[in-house]
Every structure is written in C-alpha cells, then in structure tokens.
Amino acid sequence: MNEQQRKQQSQIRQTDNPTDIKSDAANIERLKNTSSDDLITKYFETTYEPPNLSKARKRGRDDVEVHYDFGIPEDMENIGEGKKFMIRTYGCQMNEHDTEVMAGILSEMGYESTDDKEEADIILLNTCAIRENAENKVFGEIGHLKALKRENPDLILGVCGCMSQEEKVVNRIMKKHPQVDLIFGTHNIHRLPHLVKEAMFGKEKVVEVWSKEGDIIENLPKARKGKIKAWVNIMYGCDKFCTYCIVPMTRGKERSRLPEDIIQEVRHLTAQGYKEITLLGQNVNAYGKDFEDSDYSLGDLMDDLHMIDIPRIRFTTSHPRDFDDRLIEVLAQGGNLLDHIHLPVQSGSSEVLKKMNRRYTREEYLELVRKIREAMPNATLTTDIIVGFPNETEEQFEETMSLVEEVGFEAAFTFIYSPREGTPAARKQDDVPEEVKKQRLYRLNELVNKQSAESMKQYKDKVVQVLVEGESKKDPDVLAGYTERNKLVNFKGPQSSVGKIVDVHITETRTWSLNGVMAETAAEVK
C-alpha cells in the first residue's frame, strides 16, 4: 500500500507538521492555563490513538497484505557510519526476535552494535507489557538514562515494543520523561529508518504508534545472535482475549505468514549452518486459522519443515484450545520435530479458567495431555501458571496443585497475577490477601522444583545429545548446551564442540540442570 493508505489505516491522527507548542506564542498564550494532563491529551489528539479493548474485540476481517519490497531509504543508507546503537530487550521471545529485526535494520543503516550505553548514539528500550514488574523496570531504566542524555544531547533515546501500545504509558513518558525522543509500537518496526530520520532532524518528539496492526512485511533484515539457534516468526497477534492479558491489544489480531515464506527462511537458515529453529507466535498453534482460501495448519507446516535437513525444530507458545489432533499426529513422527512441548495451563480450576476466558476446562486440558502422552510417551511437558487470580479460593488453588502433579510438569513459569489496565480482569474486586498469594506461589514452586529434580534423575548415567551453545555462564572452563527435551547440560569439552551436537554422559543431576562429560564412546562430533 502507498503512504496515504498507510496513514489512513494506521488510526494515528498525525499532521505532516505538528504544532510546535514550545515555540508557537499563540498556542502558549492559549494553553498557559491548561492543566498538564489536558495538555498531554490535546497533544495526543494529533499524534496518537490508544488501543481500545472494545474496538479490538469488534475488529473486522480486514485483508492483510504481504509486502516484499522493504529497503533502507537512499538518504538513510549510510547515516549510521561511525555511530553505534544499543537495544535493551524485555519480555518474551517475540520481543527478542523484534530486537533482531531492529538491529538488522540499524546495521544496514551503517550503525554498529554495542553493549556500552556510554558509547551508543541510539538506545532503544524494547518493552514488555505483560506484567507490572517489567513495566517498572523500563521506567527505572528511562530514569537512569536521563543523566546520559543530559551529557550527550545528540543521543537518540527511544521506547518501543508492547508498552508503547498503551495510552497510559505514552502519556507518562510525554509528561515526565522529556529525555525520550522516539516512541513507536509493535506494528511499525519496518518504519524504523523513517522514525530515526525524524528523531535526528525534526524538532518534535517522534510518536508513531499504530492502533491498527500493520501488514506483513517480508525480507526484513535480521541481526541474529550467533549461528546456532534461530527464531522464526510464523504469525503475529492473538485473538483469544484472555481476561488478564493485554497482548491482543498490543500485538493485534492473528496474522499468519505464508507457508512458502516460512519454509524459504528455514531452508536459508539451514544452509547457513543453524542447528535449531524455534517457530514463534503469540498463539503459535493458531497458525493458518486466518487463511480464508486454505485449511493449512501448524501441523501441515511442521510436516513440511520435517523434510528439511535441520537437526531440531521447536515451537512456542501454544494455546491448549488450538492444539489439534493433526499437530499431535505430525509431532509423533519424531526426527527433527522435538517432543518438548510448552503448554500453558494457567490454572487447574475450571471455574478460574472460565473467568480467565481460556475456553477449555480442566478435564479438556487433561484429555489433551492424555492424547499427547499416548502419541509421544516420552514427551516433556512444561507450562505457565498464574496464582492469585482475583478471588481464587483455596480449593481452586489446590486444583492447580493436583493438576501439576497429575500431568507431571517438568518445569513451569509461575507468577502471581498482575492486573493490566485495559483488561477485564483488572476491573474485578479481589478479596485474596497478597500474603496468601505469595504463600500459594511458594507452595507451587516447591512442587514444581520437586518434580523437576525428580525428572532429572532419569538421565543419571545416560548419554544424551547436547547442542553446545558456548561457555557456561558460571565457569568459562565448562561448556553448556541443551538436550532435545530442553534440559541444560554443563560439561567439559573442547571449544571445537561449540555449535555442534555431541554425546554427553550424565554424571550428576540437579533441580534445573545436568552435569556430565563427553562420552568416551561418543559418536564423532556432528
């Protein structure tokens, strides 16, 4: 689509020349008695339309276009020569992948990556909106960067990602953090060269946040970390609207990439020597449900990828409601399709699941687990669990504990419920004391730790295949990597093993990791 269409679709009411309220004497006179909150609101009338839950729930089936013509504008191709950028990432794998794209774009503009904020010319904070704690960390970092901006006025400081899709966040930045030069969201990352240009040469703070999701942009450059494992995004957005989750508003509706584009990317990564890919989506196994002219699903995609000569293929994150029999059938083929399955349950109580709008019951989840176990007896299951959802009773929490035991999860990401403004759950009155929630989390973590430690014991004195990623974080003399079932293994071996799959004999098991030595009778390093 052309520039005019993009502006019409984006729902950002932005003029070509926003009024400069700092220098326009007439505006200053007219607005001098206006409260700061009203002034912020007036400013946003021309720059920003916030996500709207009601609109999001009613969002239509607008066609999504696929574009293959991304390129750096000619006048920005070498703008970063001799300059450096730093991107600090918060949140999920999708945010990590978005950072790889932004780093790729900036690199093509001539910038060089750095981990030292003191030498950076651009600093971007790629944010997460899932939990309040992540938001607090970002605002803390913005505060810390104020002194750096004062010392280096030419520094471009930007906030992007999911937090930028929230009206209250942008209002707060505009009101309290003038050191921030650039704000953009999750749908317009491909616009980064244009946004940097505006931040460098424009007089205004640059705010471009699309409330309506954009199209699918292919051929975006990516600066991936390392040459061993790679993220491959297969879809965007989520249509589930769990009552506690802000993602449908920050990431938009579900949009699937075309199968041929995904397969081509995986083939390209395989040719580059990558050993493992992880297919990404906010709700990855809803892949293909938005295709109107075919019934091609995640199971079909995995079946096609199964034929590619890459050692390992994973996917995350699944929603139990969309985990169908076709996917189970394909995964049961094994080979490079790994049987470590992350399957967030969130609660073991059907009543709580209904309040969460998860659209499955405890019994339906357990039936899905039964099907997976029947097809893949050795499958490793991990999950996400929220404790302390508004008005969760002790009996409902005990249902979660019993489900964790019954399924036998080998790991879990566990959280106390965090209300997010703009979600239905945030409006609920909650009669569960915070101390009770903390006690429940402690008890749940004790159980998960116990099950994890127990599951590790099966590997004692066994030989496992480890994809070696590099040195251990705790000991540079020790190598570290992961098994097919995502178990961390630390062992001593030659540096030449990095990036390869080697056999390791397990000598010691711990709660969350395994220790071992390279097997004397191991097959030749692959």
UniProtKB/TrEMBL annotation:
Domain TRAM: 457-520
Residue segments, region Disordered: 1-30
Domain (Radical SAM core): residue spans on this chain: 224-454
Cofactor: record remark: Binds 2 [4Fe-4S] clusters. One cluster is coordinated with 3 cysteines and an exchangeable S-adenosyl-L-methionine.
Domain spans labelled MTTase N-terminal: 83-201
Primary localisation category: cytoplasm
Compositional bias of kind Basic and acidic residues: 19-30
Protein name as catalogued: tRNA-2-methylthio-N(6)-dimethylallyladenosine synthase
Species of provenance: Lentibacillus amyloliquefaciens
Name of the coding gene: miaB
